[in-house]
Amino acid sequence: MSKIQFSLDYLNQSCVDFKLIHNNEDWRSFKKSNGQYVYFIIWNESSEIFSWGTTSGKSDRIRKSSLLNDKLTGKYDRRVDYLMLKIIYGNPKIYIYEMPQTATIFETFLKHHFEQLHCWIGLQGKDRNEISKGIIQEFKRTNHFESLIITDKEEFENFLNNVFFARRVHPKNPKRTFYWGDSLEPNFLPVINCGHYEQTIEKVLKVKF
Prior knowledge:
Number of strands: 7
Number of helices: 10
Mean pLDDT: 96
Distance between the termini: 42 Å
Structural class: alpha+beta
């Protein structure tokens, strides 16, 4: 049995309800404000590249991922990785599972089953930074990235080094962290004097601030 099929079977058997969502309207009509959900994203079925995570109706990481809507909102640490994967592989299959209890229980089961600490399968790297660096390498080989002008390529590289991997925090409240994709929360880049990256990010990742 494939890893994808094992995961889908486990989630299907454990959930209260599920839906394959194609757009933000699908998700909006399915979610409940007090619901607990596991999302399961298939990026490339033949190569068994997939990821999973949890959300609630209130935290709404699906919306914050910007996979279904190009308008950036809120904080989500995996957002940049997800946006690059979408450009690499095209629109993913996104399954949403409503769970009968705390969703992290089911998220953790899959991590333990696959004997790993992260929620990715099929990508190289043993930790968060290594996985992101592998995605970036693949992303830079896409026709989309290669078609960008040199200044946007350079600015995106600067953003990755100076912000994305730099574990930035809010200058007035160091307890407010903006690691990885969290850094794309609207209005954060100008706060750390990096607002000049916004236009480049819009073009490189196909989003809007």
